[in-house]
Amino acid sequence: MSALGTVTTTEDGRLCLRLTRRIPVPPETVWPAITEARRLEGWFPSVVSTDFAPGAKLTFDLTAEQREHMGIGPDEDMSAEGEVLRYEAPRHLEYTWGEEIFRWTLDPDGPDGTLLTFVDIFDDRSLAAQMASSWHAVLDLFEARLTGRDVDWSVWDREAELRGEYAEAVP
């Protein structure tokens, strides 16, 4: 099981979720998995309109699985806009998703590994444990998919398992 992430408060009063993973593949392999729309399928919690690129305008929409889980009909518009703010392959990616800011940092970790740091900056304190447990589960799935491991759990079950731990850990 991967270690819990941390939630802190930024200088301007927003919340900052930080999760790290040591992944046994090089950054050059991880980078396309977080920047190419077709590679996001199967692990990322949204359908993304286009590949990430410098200055790209993005549209995010819920996956069919998310819609079903949340009881949202296919005709309800749940899309959000975003924009790539920083794109420095294969190390730094930063973009907005609605009002949130996401940062991905990939640092070499030994000859064939990556230390991935994911940051989500958001405002709603009442959602902090849910956000943390959800992204934790998503990154567990991401790592499994990237390294070719099968999973015998759903993101929703994993998120539910983690939510209590995050509820206790979030300030």
From TrEMBL:
Database matches in InterPro entries: ASHA1/2-like_C, START-like_dom_sf
Gene3D superfamilies attached to this UniProt entry: 3.30.530.20
One Pfam family named in its UniProt record: AHSA1
Residue ranges of every copy of the Activator of Hsp90 ATPase homologue 1/2-like C-terminal domain listed in the record: 25-146
Family assignment from sequence similarity: Belongs to the AHA1 family.
Name the record gives this protein: Uncharacterized protein YndB with AHSA1/START domain
